[in-house]
Design goal:
4 strands, globular, single chain, binds copper (II) ion, 4-stranded antiparallel β-sheet, alpha+beta, Alpha-Beta Plaits, 32% helix, 2 helices
Length: 69
Amino acid sequence: MQTTTINIKGMTCTGCVNSAKSVLEKISGVSCVKVSLDQARAIIQHDATKSNAEQFKQAIRDAGFEIAR
Ligand SMILES: [Cu+2]
């Protein structure tokens, strides 16, 4: 199990947090997602052989948010 942290720009409310969380949870190999509005980040526990940070970032972009460094 690997933990990957993604910094997300553009989340403004709990609805944003929930949609970011739900797109990440749909990705293969993901077992746990925590999204913090205050910290503007997602912490994802996943199987590194099935999914990686690039996929998470793409899913976040597709959901209408931006990736911060
Ligand atoms: Cu929102």
